[in-house]
Amino acid sequence: VIRPEPCGVCGSRIRFGKTAIKCCQCQLLLHTKCREQCPSPCVPRPRHHTWPREGVLADFAPSTTPLVPPLVVQCVTEVETRGLTETGLYRVPGAEQLVREWKRRLLRAGGALPTLSSVTDIHVVCGVLKDFLRGLKEPLVTFSLHPAFLSAADILDDAACDTALRHVVSKLPPANRDTLAFLMLHLLKVSRSPNCKMDVLNLSRVFGPTLVGHSSANPTPLAIMEDTPRQCKVVARLLSLPADFWRGFVGTEQENLVPM
User: Fold this and answer.
1) Which residues does the UniProt record annotate as the domain Rho-GAP (predicted)?
2) Which domains does the chain have, with CATH numbers?
C-alpha cells in the first residue's frame, strides 16, 4: 500500500508500506488478516459505492428530482423519527466502529438500503451521515464556489447577505443544491427542538467543516486555520434563510423522498 486506504472488511486503515489483498473483480481491498472474513462470492460493483471519497455527491444521487442521495434521506428520516428528543444531536459522537460498519453496509447496498431502525444509538446514524458527507471527493458547496460562499457570508448587511447567498446556492450543481436544501430543512427542525439543545450556532460549528470545507483537497495549514471560523459563519447564515426558500428545491412535501 502506497496511499493508506480503509480495509473493506474491518474498516480500519491499511497503512503505508503494508501488504494488502485486492480483488481484481470488485476492487475490494483488505488486510491479509481479514481474508477469512471476506464476503464470498464477490459482486462486481462501482467503486464509488464502496468508498465515497472517490465520488462527488452527484455519483450517489438518484436520476429523478429531488436529487438527494438515498443514504442521506434514510439517515435524516431516521433521525427525525426518533432522534429529535436526544440531547446533543450531531454533537455527541456515535461509536466509531459502528459508524464505519453501517456506512459500509449502506454504501454497498446501493439503492436497496437496509433499515436503520435496528441501530439502537441514534448518534451512530448521525455519525454515518456526517462521515458520508465528509468522505465525498469535494464538499457540498464545491471547491469552485467555496470562495463565493465565504464572501457572501461576510457581507454585513443582512438583506444583501441573504441575496448573495441565494444567488450562490442557485449556482450549485443540482444534486448539491437539492441535498443542501434537504439538510437545511432538517437542521432547522433540529435547532427548533428544545430537547436537542442544538441551536443554530451549535449546528454551524458541527456542520461548518463538513458542508463547507476548504477550496481545495489539500489546504495549507494557514488556510485551515483561516477557514474554520468562516465555515461556521456560512452554515449559520444559510440556516438564517427562510424555510420556504429551501422548500423551493425539494418540494413543499418531502414524503416522496422517504424510502419505502
Assistant:
1) 55-246
2) 1-32 (no CATH), 57-248 (1.10.555.10)
